[in-house]
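[Discussion] Sanity-checking designs against the backbone

I'm trying to build intuition for which residues belong where. Below is a structure token string of 206 positions. I'd appreciate it if someone posts a full sequence so I can compare it with mine line by line.
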């Protein structure tokens, strides 16, 4: 079976590494919700004119407004409701403000993450929804990846097949005692093996 996200061989629809990466995104949503607030400021009107239109541009970022008015919570609530029904847990009750909906859904889904990973038939859809939300948020906030590609992962699986995924690091976060980890296959290269990794990458580039 191939992982629906990274296409690597796995025992489930989504490999463990992709699922853990997805969960790490999910846990940031309450904080990101507040960060999006500053993006609701009216635009200065320096955008391109729309020919033939007398209607001024809407003074708000529509993508940001959507994310803060259900774009984050609604997909999460749908999956939470499904999981609650399947596990015969109590139904979702009124939660008030949008941030409460996000916080409680994140808390429930992360708390049930092990069950979801092993039993939820819509695991792939949930993972894709979470990653889609995360990408939308990053686009609005203007986040740019600081990851640097240093080569393709040379780790071999049980059949002797090379991983081949892009091996990336964040130079700003990497310390002399840090690890380099492949997000796809999970191979870890601790600092004492950096020289070995470097030689392997050099050999592949020759």
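Best answer:
Here's mine. Compare freely.
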């Amino acid at each position: 079976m191939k992982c629906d996200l990274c296409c690597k061989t796995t025992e489930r629809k989504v490999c463990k590494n992709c699922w853990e990466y997805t969960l790490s995104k999910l846990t940031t949503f309450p904080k990101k919700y507040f960060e999006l607030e500053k993006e609701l400021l009216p635009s200065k009107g320096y955008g391109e004119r729309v020919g033939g239109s007398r209607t001024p541009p809407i003074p708000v970022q529509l993508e940001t407004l959507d994310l803060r008015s259900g774009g984050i919570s609604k997909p999460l609530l749908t999956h939470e409701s499904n999981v609650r029904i399947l596990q015969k847990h109590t139904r979702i009750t009124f939660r008030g403000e949008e941030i409460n909906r996000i916080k409680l859904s994140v808390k429930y889904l992360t708390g049930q993450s092990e069950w979801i990973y092993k039993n939820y038939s819509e695991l792939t859809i949930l993972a894709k929804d979470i990653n889609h939300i995360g990408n939308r948020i990053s686009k609005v906030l203007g986040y740019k990846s600081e990851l640097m590609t240093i080569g393709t992962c040379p780790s071999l699986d049980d059949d002797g097949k090379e991983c081949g995924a892009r091996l990336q690091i964040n130079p700003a976060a990497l310390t002399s005692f840090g690890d380099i980890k492949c997000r796809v296959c999970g191979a870890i290269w601790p600092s004492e093996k950096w020289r070995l990794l470097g030689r392997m990458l050099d050999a592949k580039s020759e």
